[in-house]
Amino acid sequence: TTASQPAINKHLIGSRRCSFEGLDGLEEIIKDRELLSSQLRRVKFEVRNQKQDSNTIANELMSLHRVLCVVNTRKDALELYRKTEDNDGVIHLSRSMCSAHIMEKIEDIKRTLSSSEKPLRVISTQLIEAGVDIDFPVVFRQICGLDSILQAAGRCNREGKNKEMGRVVVFSGEKLPSAGHIRIGSQCFNELIDLNPDVDLLSPKTMELYFELLYSNIQNFDSAGIKELLYDDAQR
User: What is the pLDDT of residue 44?
Assistant: First the structure.
């Protein structure tokens, strides 16, 4: 599974209204998950409750020498890029670009990070959150689900070379994310923070609680009927 493990043990989800039952007999490979989480942590989180407009975020990004900003939509990424493109070292990434162009830009980012002290400000959609080995001292992440926030945090102080902890800023835009899984994840993250403003976002127990909240807010995990199609194929 991913680094941000979903809560799939039956005993964890049985107490909440959920459209699947969970799995029995699961066993962790790493027995002391809390100790492992403590030993491997390389970032500190700054969660901002107040909403911030794109001008404010753009100005703050430009005040930093090297920063990665991950937002939820191509529209948001383009808006921030338009406000910052006249500055040095600004790179825009989104799925509106062709794959070859994306890979070219990612190679540019890696070269700049490894071989120079030039300013570098990357504004990207979620495409950069997984499978891309880059390391920034500061990461901004627009509010979303905790699993995606931790994926973005994996691009901050990734190699642990900074003497100080990396900085991950979770911010809210002026508008709620559009309806769908991003909005549900954002609402569950906010609920998590409301329950405990000082919650340790890197703790495995926090991740379990987040997924319990998420499951209780999703009415149907298989609205497209994929499970039945799979069963039909297996029976044939």
Answer: 95
